[in-house]
């Protein structure tokens, strides 16, 4: 489940272990802040004076932070870690009480669980009451119950999973969601088109449906047209993207769209395709595929054998080849 992966992730971050958390390396510093005594500075004290009064064995916040940032340090996070992970570790040095136990639920705004074999999005996520970004890419999720998602979510990324049905996700979707990523899943049209409307996603700005199995361009566009705030759309990798008039029809049908398939839509392109949306008869149930052969190895080049001298009586040998593509 996501909750199990989340707690394992926190354990891996070591928020309660040196140089983070509370321990002999910094305990007196926090004792001084919470219980000021004569001769020891409290909250608001001069940092320089606090450093002078630091007992032997204690480490300064600067020294502990350096252990987290220096890539030579054994306590540094890998370079591919998320900014949220780095932020949590820094907080565990400067204010360790804020990330102890259930308090971490109040500070976590982004959660990234990638490639951990997660199959279930359980209700444990509801404890993250401030969560705005949830990234669950490259797992084994086939279904999501929207009731288990925090209502504060603005970004939900589910790329590279096994989602085939959006019904459960759309039962009570997060009302403020701005980005929905469903690339590389098992979604098929037209049965799923009806869930991609403003009735479910009134604030959606970005939608990634690439590399699924959507085939009905007209039906999908009729649903997407209700998303008045949609500005970024990715549909490449679907069968409908092979239709010759695919891009032009989408550009003209969704006038508020700014980016389609990671390519900016400029004024010239809008003018070029103006009026195409009113000609649905141009959309045929056929695809156009261009195959370019760059190099073939292990086959004699026919042209090289025909460079004979003028007047030569040598026999001419011709070669021909047939290349077949099976779909």
TrEMBL record:
One of its GO terms (cellular component) is cytoplasm. InterPro entries: Leu-rich_rpt, Leu-rich_rpt_typical-subtyp, LRR_dom_sf. SMART domains: LRR_TYP. It holds the Pfam family LRR_1. Residues 36-55 are annotated as: Disordered. Gene3D superfamilies: Ribonuclease Inhibitor. Keywords: Leucine-rich repeat, Repeat. PANTHER family: LEUCINE-RICH REPEAT-CONTAINING PROTEIN 51 (PTHR15454:SF19), NISCHARIN RELATED (PTHR15454). This is Leucine-rich repeat-containing protein 43. It comes from Aptenodytes patagonicus. The gene is Lrrc43.
């Amino acid at each position: 489940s996501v909750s199990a992966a989340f707690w394992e992730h926190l354990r891996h971050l070591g928020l309660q272990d040196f140089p983070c958390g509370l321990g002999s390396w910094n305990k007196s510093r926090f004792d001084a802040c919470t219980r000021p005594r004569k001769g020891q500075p409290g909250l608001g004290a001069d940092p320089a004076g606090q450093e002078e009064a630091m007992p032997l064995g204690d480490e300064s916040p600067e020294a502990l932070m350096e252990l987290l940032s220096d890539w030579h340090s054994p306590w540094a996070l890998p370079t591919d870690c998320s900014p949220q992970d780095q932020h949590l570790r820094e907080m565990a040095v400067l204010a360790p009480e804020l990330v102890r136990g259930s308090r971490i639920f109040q500070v976590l705004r982004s959660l990234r669980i990638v490639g951990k074999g997660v199959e279930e999005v359980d209700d444990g996520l509801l404890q993250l009451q401030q969560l705005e970004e949830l990234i669950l890419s490259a797992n084994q999720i086939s279904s999501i119950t929207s009731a288990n998602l925090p209502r504060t979510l603005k970004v939900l990324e589910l790329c590279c999973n096994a989602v085939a049905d959006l019904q459960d996700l759309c039962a009570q979707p997060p009302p403020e969601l701005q980005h929905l990523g469903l690339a590389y899943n098992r979604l098929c049209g037209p049965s799923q088109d009806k869930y991609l409307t403003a009735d479910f996603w009134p604030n959606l700005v970005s939608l990634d449906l690439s590399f699924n199995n959507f085939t009905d361009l007209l039906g999908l566009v009729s649903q997407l047209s209700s998303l008045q705030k949609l500005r970024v759309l990715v549909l490449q990798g679907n069968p409908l993207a092979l239709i010759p008039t695919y891009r032009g029809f989408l550009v003209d049908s969704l006038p508020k769209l700014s980016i389609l398939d990671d390519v900016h839509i400029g004024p010239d392109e809008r003018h070029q395709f103006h009026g195409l949306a009113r000609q649905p008869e141009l959309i045929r149930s056929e695809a156009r595929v261009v195959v370019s052969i760059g190099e073939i190895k292990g086959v004699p080049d026919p042209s090289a054998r025909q460079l004979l001298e003028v007047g030569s009586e040598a026999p001419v040998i011709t070669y021909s080849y047939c290349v077949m593509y099976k779909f």
